[in-house]
Write a structure and sequence with these properties.
Number of helices of chain B: 8
Low-confidence stretches of chain B: none
Largest sheet of chain A: none
Number of domains of chain B: 1
Radius of gyration of chain A: 22 Å
CATH architecture of chain B: Orthogonal Bundle
Low-confidence stretches of chain A: 1-17, 223-228
Strand content of chain B: under 5%
Number of strands of chain A: 0
Structural class of chain B: mainly alpha
Mean pLDDT of chain A: 76
Strand content of chain A: under 5%
Oligomer: heterodimer
Mean pLDDT of chain B: 83
Largest sheet of chain B: none
Structural class of chain A: mainly alpha
Order of helices and strands of chain A: HHHHHHH
């Protein structure tokens, strides 16, 4: 219980201070709309406008080089598979343009989320989600996303402790199938135990705060100074 | 039907969140078609194995789908919910039909492959929606579905040893494969 309280305090204290370029609610709607538009539009002109909008998002969120590299890899893979299949089916003359258009459409459906994930605060996104879903589901989803970094940090501690104990779970060890059982028994099973324990702690902390008693007060705080 | 407890809901939420982030992370690094189904079937079967609730995998799939759609992940926009929900329904159906599935590696691999096969439907729906030629769409979806089945089966294979270990630790109070609530 105390751990959960401390983590909550930690989360609020360490929230990013940089203001979001676009309010998270609007960014989520924009992302949803752009992805949907990408799979529905057909004309090259509409795709051009969509590409410009996505480029605008890139300029606004200014993702780092690593994110841009990932987008680049995605473009290459997508174009290679889809265009390759079109070329095989229709030949170079008739297959090239439809293949490139479809690849571009799928890329436009994927890019907004990629930019948003790297540019927006996960905590704030979780708060926005909590306004769209039923109270209990919103709490569960928001709490899971909020406490995920803590769970991952604890899994990392388990990983390092198991390495010190001699478990063969380094990436180079895992190239050999003989060591895969170590991964299951020394990392995955304890990580699941940790997740169950964390879920139990959060549930107890929420129930101690009368979670579920009032229909409108069971969401995670909507603002920084809010109470649960 | 017994109501899902808050602790169990939160655990399913963690499974959903882990499913979404692993799917996102490994897609970028490997770029191998269908490999994300490995994590999907693993987390779905794990959630069903750890929580004795008939629709546990579907709840996990739905939460993962909502999170992924809201964050705009995946190629399908809002249709991405179906990409998580369909394998989850396949897992719940598999466990309902074969109650002892979670104790057997072979049966888990079979259910994992079944869950992987659902990728075919999600892919074909998106391909046809974006206006791809039907012949190409079917072929593309078949390739994706086949790869997803292989990775889904591999993801299912590793669930029973983890569940057995959890049972040995005394973490799971219910018998694996018992009649669900």
């Amino acid at each position: 219980m105390r751990t959960v309280g401390l983590t909550l305090q930690h989360n609020f204290e360490h929230r990013t201070k940089r203001p979001a370029p676009i309010p998270e609610g609007l960014a989520l709607l924009l992302c949803f709309g752009l992805s949907l538009a990408a799979i529905l539009v057909r004309s090259p002109a509409a795709l051009g406008w969509l590409s410009l909008t996505n480029f605008g998002l890139l300029v606004i969120y200014r993702p780092n080089g690593k994110t841009l590299l990932r987008i680049g890899r995605l473009i290459l893979w997508q174009v290679a598979v889809i265009t390759g299949l079109h070329l095989l089916r229709y030949g170079p003359a008739a297959g090239l343009m439809p293949g490139l258009r479809t690849s571009w459409q799928l890329l436009m459906a994927f890019t907004p989320g990629l930019i948003l994930l790297h540019g927006a605060s996960t905590g704030r996104l979780a708060q926005v989600l909590s306004r769209m879903l039923p109270a209990r589901s919103a709490f569960v989803l928001a709490a899971s996303l909020k406490f995920l970094p803590q769970l991952l940090a604890e899994v990392k501690i388990i990983y390092e402790a198991q390495l010190l104990r001699g478990a063969r779970i380094l990436p180079r060890d895992l190239l050999h199938p003989r060591h895969w059982s170590d991964l299951l028994h020394c990392l995955i099973a304890p990580a699941v135990v940790q997740a169950l324990e964390l879920a139990d702690n959060i549930a107890r902390a929420a129930q101690a705060r009368e979670f579920g008693r009032m229909p409108r007060r069971t969401c995670w705080p909507g603002n920084q100074g809010g109470r649960s | 039907m017994k109501k899902l407890s808050l602790k169990d809901s939160l655990f399913l939420g963690f499974c959903a969140a882990l499913l979404v982030i692993t799917k996102a992370a490994f897609r970028w690094h490997l770029g191998i078609s269908g490999h994300a189904m490995f994590f999907t079937t693993f987390f779905l079967l794990l959630s069903r194995g750890c929580v004795p609730f008939r629709g546990a995998a579907s709840v996990t799939g739905l939460m993962a789908g909502i999170a992924a759609a809201a964050l705009g992940m995946g190629k399908g926009g809002p249709l991405v919910i179906g990409k998580f929900l369909l394998p989850a329904l396949a897992v719940d159906l598999g466990v309902m039909v074969l109650p002892r599935v979670l104790g057997s590696c072979l049966l888990c691999a079979l259910v994992g492959a079944l869950a992987g096969a659902t990728k075919f439907f999600g892919t074909v729906a998106i391909d046809l929606l974006v206006g791809m030629d039907p012949a190409i769409a079917w072929r593309h979806s078949f390739l994706e579905g086949l790869a997803a089945m292989a990775f889904g089966a591999a993801g299912g294979l590793i669930v029973p040893p983890v569940l057995r270990r959890l049972r040995a630790y005394g973490v799971l109070n219910h018998q694996i494969g018992e009649k669900p609530s």
